[in-house]
Amino acid sequence: MTPMSSAEAPRLVVLAGPTAVGKGTISAYVRTHFPQVWLSVSMTTRPKRPGEVDGVHYHFVAEQEFQRLIDAGEFLEYAQVHGRAYYGTPRGPVERALASGRPALLEIDLQGARQIRETMPEALFVFLEPPSWDELVRRLVGRGTETEEERTVRLETAKRELAAASEFDVVITNDDVRRASEELVSLMSSRPSAQS
To answer: What structural domains and CATH numbers belong to the chain?
Structure first.
């Protein structure tokens, strides 16, 4: 990977994709292996899963606090996902990271990516897809973090999300975590071509 030239403005990359595609795994790999990349930590009202750490994986807050931040205009994007919990990207940390010159990565859901496209169209939008539908199902079931009913809802949502790949600037297949992560980070140092 070529390091970013100091003359280049930092690049915001928005990573989205269907449930269980491995967005969190890719983000964790980037966090560990590419410390120059600033990773946004989303806020959510859902309960912590086993092994998750507040402030690292998500900022876990009560729904009342989340609503207060919505009312104050503190989110770049937010959404209620799977008809249950709220997720959102706090505005201030992203703006501070870009102002400090660091490339920034947002790992968000499809609804959030669409909101960011409205407010920050200069960002690069990357869709993470599974190698196959069967592999996506295997990953979701293998996590063991959702009930059968929740898995059904998530898989129905995933079908709709997969159909949105054409809305994104780049599609990366998550068939190998290291390869997909390196491809993602390499996009942060490339510059966008002139758009018509």
So the answer is: 12-189 (3.40.50.300)
